[in-house]
Amino acid sequence: GINGECGKQWYQRRVRGRMMTAEEENTREHASTVSLNDENDGRLSVSITDAVSELETVKFTIQTKSALPSFSQHQMSVIRCHEEFIWLHDMLSENIEYAGYIIPPAPPKPDFEAARDKLTRITAAESTMSEDEYKKLRKELESDYLALFKKTVAMHEMYLMRIAAHSKLREDSNFRVFLEYAKDLKVRSKNKKELIGGFFKNMTKNVDEALLSSQKDKDEFFIERRTFLDDYHTRIRETTRQTEQLSESTNALSVDYMQLAGGFALLSVQDPQLQRFMAQCAISFEVMQKLQKRVSTDEDLKFTDLFKYYQREADAAKSLLYRRGRALADKDIAENKLEKAQEKFKDIPTAEAYLQDCKIRFESISEMAKTELDTFKVRRLETYRKHLVDMSELQIRHSQSKVGELSKGLELLCDL
Amino acid sequence: DDGFPGEEEKSAPTPAVVVCEPEEEDPVIPVAEDKDALFDMEEKEDLAGIEDDREDLFGGSEEPATTQPDLFDDDDDEEEESSLQGAIPVRTNSDHDRVPFNTPAVGCALDDTKTTALLNAAKESAQLKKSIGWVNGDKKSSPKESSSIEIPNYTKVGEGYSSYIIYTIQATIGDAPKTTVQRRYNDFFVLHQLIVENYLPRGVIVPPVPEKNFMGTAKLRFGGGSSNESTQDPSLFIKRRKAALERYLNRLMAHNLISKDETLRRFLQEEDAPRPNPNATGIKGFMKSMETMVTKATARINEVDEWYEDKQQHILEMEETLKKILAVSDNIVADRRDLAAKSAAFSSSCLHLGEGEDNASLRRAITKLSELEQNLSNVHTEMADGDLFIFGETVKDYISIIQATKAAFDERVKAFSLWESAQSTLAKKRDAKSKATLQGKTDRVAQCEEDIRFWEGKVEKCQEDFEVISKNLKEEIRVFEEVWVRDIKESTKAYFQKLIDAENQIISSWKAFLPEAKTIN
What we know:
The structure holds two protein chains of two kinds. By secondary structure, chain A is mainly alpha-helical. Chain A is 72% helix and 6% strand. Chain A has a three-stranded antiparallel β-sheet. The longest helix of chain A has 70 residues, at 275-344. Mean pLDDT of chain A is 83; it is low at 1-40. Chains A and B meet through α8, α9 and α10 of A and α9, α10 and α11 of B.
């Protein structure tokens, strides 16, 4: 069965092969890197060149080419799993020096559970269906799996590129370790205690945010950005939902095409007068199924993922504003403390020093945040642009293929 | 005077009389125009106690006999001429067929099923007699005129419960000028019943009429509900029905024999629609359908020609496959409509998103995306109609036509049953004669000899009829297969074309959007 060793190898072989050859347009096109902002002056380029799915995890092969002095070599290659990405994200989030940056949102965990369930169901039902049906279902499952796979690779890659493009974050030592260190980072997923800890941390953050929302901010820029992000977040969440539904609906049609092809095949077998005619129809609709599936996959990759990603980015930007708000609140508290100290003539230097720290912190965060939010805008424009242009080109290509196949089929049918 | 030719030893209790006399004179050919002549013949028989019921039990229409072009007008037709009235099966000549079938015996002889069966046997064979002429006529009969029937529009008449739809039918037949009539669905249904009555017994595959649809009609009558959905539903229902009715009429006109049918021509050309057979309802109709059920014995035909069994098998297979394909087709229609809906929803959410964008070029691009998706939604909706009308309806039609072929096969089985039962009755008569001979009842023996001669003729006739209907059926199936292959090929090709057109529209939409996407800055 699939869950055994041979199954593992089957997936490995299949997926690896696909990644290496540029058969699928999507592979080809995402390998041509997503250009983020121009801070990536070519001195650091990161890409995921291979990916292997083992039973429970995906292993990504990350290749780095660097002209930066901080790296020990010019070229390196490592293998990382998803947990190691999360480790990196945590390291970056917890670093107070980066409080003024939008911390790139972590890529979502690869989730093949749905595909695995489907596989178990199909193998269990193998005896009840014809060989043809079984083959078809397996094929369908393969392509589902492949699509999921490509998605998760794309998202992990995007994450790394985002960091690599950030002039300060790319200097981060943890990032370097991530890219360079040949061995396993020995990162384990969070244990229960840590998970609960993280949960509470989030809770307090949310409460805090609520309190801070009534803050008196004197800076117009940030007030406006705040409003924009809150609003934008809501809208994009709705759009994401609609896109997911659209992609599913497009996919449903591809399943129908397959079944129609099956119907034609039956007619071809049963009716000698229609044998060649219907056989051709079956062929054409099998091709239509594949193409329709690609349309659906692209809607998923180019639309759904785009909007989901920017939902996450908007969240990250909101986190930044929260941190700034936190720093502002701290500064206000420090000012109060100083006043009190001055009244009591006690611990004034300490209070003054503390206030000074808070001021510096607040101002640096504010400054960094301004830049970050501006680049956020630029990045968004570029990413949207790329995705929408790619999507258009892909859709045109898919429809042209469909027209091609149907026209060719029709020509043949007219002779039969 | 026995009521029944040797059937029972005791005298018949009922007044219904079936008497067979050896016929000396030449049979008189009943002329179509002179309907009364039919009944005149009857009076020659000894019909004690039977009221002369002028009502023609088989009578198709209430109208007096019309001048029907003789369907059997064919020089090569060796059989006796018999002029045919529309749906009225005229008693044709037969040396042996002296049973006055159009007596009210059916109505009053309920207590003797044997009489009834006999009468029916006679009735059936009279009907089948027609087919002898038909087959011979088929190849040499006047060529079918080209015709085209259209239902260009419809109107709703009345309000609420009593409302209905009137369809306008334009018929162009041969060189004749175009005619226009108004018909409602029920008229079609009546027409269908009349045609089935007339042609099915000959082994004809009668094109099925679009089915009655309570829900659709109810919605229509009380329609115009609150939501958009329900106003769409009735109109889609009407569109489908209109198209189906059009196809139905064209199929009728495509059939070599049916296209020349008087009732059909009346339907297409005269202001008033043909009326239903009055005997179809009421007790006589009930008896008739009962009889049909009885004679629909599951006779196992000892096939000399495997062709019939093979064909039936093949047709069953085809039916199964078509049902599968219809299910897929329905899914496609539903899914495409869903896709249209989802595209529209996505479109409006894009619009919403665009409004929230702070960058002007991005805002415009996303707004354009919204427009694009709305266009795509429209393409999908249109394509769903294509899925339905071009492909799905054809498949659906053929599933119904297969039902009609099954009915035709059944008719052949019925004919076989009649033949078998005639044979068995003949055997019984022969036994009765032997018995009577042994017993020395000379007058009984004479009677038996009469009966035997009658039944020998009957058997011969039934065999002929069976052979004729078998031949007809083969031909019908041949035509059916030809038309099926042609139709499904045409539909499929048209479907391909429609898909191509839809995809081309999709290409143009995206091509229009692409430059917009590139301008994001």
